[in-house]
Amino acid sequence: MSKKISMVEKRVWLKEYDEGKSQISIATKYKRDVRTIKKGIEEAKRERDATFARADLLKEALRKHNADLMSLLEQLTIVFQPLPISQAIPWRKFDEGSLIFPGGKAQYEIELDARVWNVILDIETETRWQLLLEHLKHDPLPKALNAWKKTLSSHIESRMKLKQKLAELLRSKTGYQLENKIVGNRCLLTSAVDHLFDYLLIYLPHPDGINRLVNNIVADNDTGEVKYGEGTTLAIARSEEEDCKNSIISALKELQKTKATDTLLTTCEIHRRSSDKASKAIEEIRMMGLVPGQCRICRRLGM
Description:
Layout: H1 7-18, H2 23-30, H3 34-79, E1 98-101, E2 104-111, E3 114-121, H4 127-135, H5 140-174, E4 178-179, E5 186-189, H6 190-203, H7 209-214, E6 217-220, E7 225-228, E8 232-237, H8 241-256, H9 259-288, H10 296-300
Parallel strand pairs: 4-5
Antiparallel strand pairs: 1-2, 2-3, 5-8, 6-7, 7-8
Helix pairs in contact: 1-3, 2-3, 5-6, 5-8, 5-9
């Protein structure tokens, strides 16, 4: 029985054949039948073609894997936008303790005997997210993202506390109760808290912001209403329109001096800085065009 020819020898034949030697000269050199040389070269070619095809498949798989992870980073950039001024913030005891913002949500939960806003991103439920975290084990981004979550949690908390303080001052200054709809001749509308709070967020950062805000509060003696501008009704105060207007203005000016306002402005700035830091970490990866590190998928692909 003839000895089986190894693939190593067949690869040598293919190499010499590719270099221009004829099958006859190779057969003469290695003392083999020409038919054996021809068959061996064909087998080596098939092996090489299969190797190249597999390499191309692996390269394409890794390219797609990197593209998937890069698309997650693109989605993440949406999250690092400032929390909208019009973002609904729960502030009453019976309000649902959650809010949805672009790219995620925050849930008011009990943690270590205290209530905190737990921030969860939409993409965190995806399997790809866990793979991305494996890649970024030694990258600054995960740490920056955790810091961003904490600052967002603190900022949401400060908005909620300031809104609660606003409602408290409006009630105490006017002596009116907050109502969801007009009740009787004198009441504050719950929507007034929402409207005034949104305007507060616009005007507070400006040195003369409160004065600009209160200048838009007017008493309408014909309708018995106190309004913001020409259309938004804040309170019903028939025969007490001016007094109610002045009480609302007093509440807003007092609110400006409270610790709750200072905390809001501080958390807003801290959150802005953390957003910038996280955005920079993402931008550096995007500039590379390649997600650093490895994950279990990479290892299964032979990386």
